[in-house]
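# step 3/5: fold
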Amino acid sequence: MTMPPTDPATGIAPTGTITTAPPGAGEPAASPPANRRLLPSLLASSLTLFATYGGLIAILLPTQIALLDERNKVANLAVVSTVSFVFTLFAQPIAGALSDRTRSRYGRRIPWMVLGALAGGVLLLGLGSLTDLFWITAFWVVIQVALNFLQAPLTTITADRFPRSQRGGASAMIGLGTQLGMTVGVMLAGALGSRIGIGYAAFGIAVIVVTVLFALLNRDWSSKDAAVEPFRWGAFFRGLWIDPRKHPDFAWAFAARFLLILGYFVVSAYQLYILTDYIGLSLTDAQGAVVTLTLVAFVPR
């Protein structure tokens, strides 16, 4: 994608210029400078999103699957998680690429954030009532894809709205929301572990409300008449490949992070079953123990 020239007066972001006035028709898409509401909005949105991830993955989904079929719960959770992984593997980069090229009166990011929040939140309202593994898997896949379509534009706003000198603080705010969110989400899910439907609904409603408030408080310039590069699948997939022979440092960093995240989420997803099947706790006690372990792990972070 051809980048606009650097403008020291307005600042520059990798996804377009930061301008104090809306761009004219036929010009590249641009974003307004960050206002005072944006940093706390990023914190609240990332906290809510990752609270949802943490509460669902660590407690609510494993509990629902265990209550569905205690004997086959480990295999069933693996099926749900693996199918979800396959469908969501490219969801976030696709969401980012599509939002880069979105033309709307509300800007490029907000439509995808609101759409993702509404789709994921509404399906969460119904997930707790399902008693069939197929439908749980189908709902879970769509929810994960929808939340990824919320997360990608939310993350990109840091580059859209902040000049390079301020991106560290904005990224730190998202990072703080991520860490706090995972812990708060597990605590909330633990408190609602015996009422799975209410737990899912609480997270779904929170995602919708916080995202809509974000959209209302942090309006973007219109991109309805912006000049955008067409989306090409070939270029998209080629952009995902980085030759490890030419860039070994990136390869090592990618491998290390991949293994770290893999290990973390494998333990997180099966932590409830480890506590019930190997430690001998009841399901209710295990939910409380997951909360305790999450709080202990939060301190060194």
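# step 4/5: annotate
The longest strand covers residues 16-18.
# step 5/5: archive (pending)
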